[in-house]
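User: Hi! I'm working on a homework problem where we have to compare a predicted structure to a textbook description. Could you give me the structure for the chain below?
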Amino acid sequence: MYSNDVPVSAGKMLLVSPSSLTMYQLAKSAHRFAMSVQVCTEVRTALDLVNKQEFDAVTVDLSLGQHATAILRETRLSAANRTVVAFAISSTLDESAAAFRAGSSFVLERPLSFDSIRRTLHAAHGLILRERRRHYRCPIAIQVAIQPEGAAPVYGEASDISEGGMALRLLTPLSSGAEMKVQFTLPRRSEPIRAGAKVCWCDEKGQTGLHFLSLSARDSSELQQWIAGEFERQLAPSEAGICRIPPPTVPPLIAPAWSELT
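Assistant: Happy to help. Predicted structure tokens:
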């Protein structure tokens, strides 16, 4: 059985600022776009967060001082957030220029107002939704066939799937780091998808996380389009209109040829 009736959030923003007024203005404005805000007041903590957690937007208040732009640079270098939509809050033209050089996508200039924040978030909203879709883990319930290297096939049930991997339940736990071939068929699709995958984590109960290592061009496109459709289906009509674009064109993960699992 397949069901996905949980509404999709428009995204999560990391806000790095020492100002309680700025926190209030950004959080209230972001809420109007169905975004949640995680607040951080220290540069060191923010640097740790952008490397360990995934966000759909990062906003840095340059009043934090000379090290504030380091957060933007580190965000662009991080594996988790290098494509995130980044904002900077500046007080001068020099600060704005430095923010763009460090990787900011948009600049909010002081004095801030709800109207100026709303206009900037509106301009960035489509980009934020596309970033959210990239991270979106779609709830799913489908059978997955797994062929570990040098072992007999095993079967499990996926609980969610993203463009980069899936979570599933197995009767036989696998070892973290093990590589394998997987095969599954998406709901309302007839052709199976095959991928090379690696176990990212697995517990003693058989709960397992897989990262896709390789997909053919066809399978990569099929998976992206299906997830994009499910993501859009959960958005409000106004947000769906912003997000109704083809999935981003990215080079496919090339999968070596292998026979269908039996």
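For your comparison, note the following. The CA atoms of residues 98 and 134 lie 28 Å apart. The two ends are 22 Å apart (CA to CA). Good luck with the assignment!
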